Amino acid sequence: MGGRHRTDELEDGYTPYKEPQPRRRRGGRGKVLVPLAGSVALAVLLGVAAFVVINRDRGAGGCGGEALPVRITASPDIQPALSQIAERFNKAAHDVDGRCATVTVTKGVSATVASSFSGGKAAAMDMWIPDSKLWVTNLRARNQEVPEAGASVASSPIVMVASGSVVPNLKKSFGEASWGGMINAANVANVDGPGRKVRVLVLDPSLNAAGLGALLAAAGVARASGAGEEQLVGALKSLSGSTSTVRDQDALLSSLGVKGSKAPLGISSEQGVWAFNKVKKPEVPAVPLYPAEGTINLDYPVVVVAEDAAVRKAAEAFRKELGSEASRKTLQEQGFRTPDGKGGKAISGSAGFQAKAPQAIEPPDGKTVASMSQTWSRIKLGTRLLTLLDVSGTMALPVPGTGLTRMQAISRIAVEGMKLFPAKSEMGLWEFSTHLNGQGVDYRETVPVGPLTEDMNGVLRRDVINQRLVAARAKSTGDTGLNDTLAAAYEQMTDEYQSDKINTVLILTDGAGNDDPDGGISNQQILKRLKDRFDPEKPVSVLIIAFGPDAPKGKRQMDALAKATAGDAYIAKNILEVRKFFLEGMKRRLCAPNCD
Questions:
Q1: SS3 label, residue 452
Q2: Average pLDDT in the 423-432 region?
Q3: SS3 call for 15
Q4: PROSITE patterns per the record (predicted)?
Q5: Which contiguous run of DSSP H or E holds residue 309?
Q6: How far apart are CA 159 and CA 213, in angstroms?
Q7: What does the alpha-carbon distance between residue 427 and residue 551 come to, in Å, rounded to a whole number?
């Protein structure tokens, strides 16, 4: 009606309240029906309200009764994402045998959780999601009662990592990222290799799955390529040093930006690199480098440890939730990949990240994992070494074609070998011939065993030993009282055995064997003494390195002496072989006393 407005209406059709008009009263039934209708209406309203409240508390799925708690311990890197998923899961109210499953996710370092297992069980959790099944594999290698690792909920490849500022120069000296290149750069015996310009950092494999996975991948690649086992041992020996091993991934990533004479190259998970750049926001971001041979992935398996049937059922329901599209998206947003390697926008190919998953290397079996773990723990042991230097008369003879005497060549071998041992090592030096320290005493203590860094009258023990080696001279009239010397040295080293070190007696000789015309211990007697004194629980091994034309003559006896103590004997053709022999000796001591 053109331009006319009803005075009893406002905009949007709202009608104002009007005072109700009085109605005529009807008799009879109205008095009963009105209260009854009100009661019915109130009951309906209360029923609807109760339905809304109950279903609000139950959630969309609907469940009642008391809560059914499910306690999950997860690796710290994935715990925040899992907590988001658990929150959604709890709101959906999953009914399990008439109870509401309630999931809580707390963080726990995988190495710490693994060490808490006792009798196949771990307290205070119903489900465990470590960063790698390697922890479970290692546990089950020792105890089959530990539950098997279930399906993975996410993945993240183990990568090499460097600061973006050094990547161009790193590629010039190191080449493309590869496990083989890492071994070459870290090998303590490869003095002319890329290690001159590259400093390799690793995560302690006893505390980090990324560190253990990297060593397993590198070892597998080295063996497949035919590289000598001593190269791997040389790399492990270098990486086990205090300046190369880092306990924490964030600490390693933070150290990449520290400038030095060598470009630092580290190990990390891909997700760890992403998280570091996002949270720490370094001035120069860290860049992931994907090994050419492929890599082992962190795979975040589900391990159900609950014994209660209802809790196990609830845990299984949450495991299925982790495989949903929504859950996978949450994990991808936090820098993880799906179990089959699909990444999200977080790692879509920018800032050095590779959108396509790198080739996966299948993790080795439990025996191999346990062996690597044992090798690492033993190679990190310190060294306690007593060197016995032959100064008998034959050591003054020339070595054809070298311009050196046997004494000079052996001394150079010793100095070269010393370079392989870290500063924390303990060493000493004896010389032996015949009657060196009075009649009938065939040896003399030149430098007592002690820390290489210990001050000895203003000079470090390492330097004192090197000086004595260079200054050593053969006793022109001296014979070779090897057996008496070895008996005394072995007794001292076994009496002073240190369990946190690899204890070794090293003999440097021209290989002529024992030659003591004035008597002394016979070859049979020294073998019996060594066998009697050798304790597999406290092994002291004998390592022999011989150099010179007479060495092959004494090889049989040298082998027998070494074998009696789970040691080894080598004949060096030239000084360049020395590092190899020292590394082979280290490798053998890693398996002692059960070497093949």
A1: coil
A2: 93
A3: coil
A4: VWFA (PS50234)
A5: helix 309-322
A6: 10
A7: 25
- Averaged confidence pLDDT in the chain: 85
Q: Cα angle vertex 321, ends 315, 326, to 5°?
A: 155
pLDDT digits (tens, 9 = 90+) for 206-219: 999 999 999 999 99
- What are the residues facing 388 on neighbouring strands? 430, 507
Calpha distance 28→150 (Å, rounded): 75
Quick one: tokens of 97? 């045998």
**pLDDT tens per residue, range 484-521:** 999 999 999 999 999 988 899 999 998 868 888 887 89
> Beta strand 382-390 with 426-432: parallel, antiparallel or unpaired?
parallel
Determine the Cα–Cα distance for residues 468 and 415; give it in Å rounded to an integer. 10
Per the model's pLDDT, the better-predicted residue between 8 and 453 turns out to be 453
CA distance 560 to 527: 7
Which residues are CB-neighbours of 389 under 8 A, at least 6 positions away?
410, 411, 414, 429, 430, 431, 432, 446, 469, 472, 508
The 10 Å Cβ neighbour count of residue 282 is 15
Helices vs strands, H then E, count in the chain: 19, 22
Strands 404-405 and 398-399: antiparallel
In the DSSP assignment, the letter for residue 435 is: S
Quick check: 244 and 195 in contact, CB under 8 A? no
pTM of structure = 0.76
| pLDDT value at 570 more than 70 | yes
Per-residue pLDDT, 40? 40
CA-based nearest residue to 198, from 219, 183, 212: 183
Alpha helices in 355-481 (DSSP H): 366-379, 406-418, 461-471
- The DSSP symbol for 26 reads P
Rounded (to 5) percent helix, strand, coil in the chain: 40, 20, 40
Segment 138-151, tens digit of pLDDT: 999 888 999 999 99
Do the beta carbons of residue 488 and residue 443 sit within 8 Å?
yes
d(CA 522, CA 415) in angstroms, rounded, equals 31
Overall average pLDDT of the 546-572 stretch: 90
Residue 98, token pair as written in the block: 């008439």
Q: What distance in Å separates the CA atoms of residue 420 and residue 379, rounded to the nearest whole number?
A: 13
Give the whole-angstrom CA distance, residue 339 versus residue 300.
9
Instruction: Give the whole-angstrom CA distance, residue 356 versus residue 539.
Output: 49
Q: pLDDT at position 231, please?
A: 76
Distances (CA, A) of 559 to 173, 280, 388, 477, 578: 42, 57, 17, 27, 18
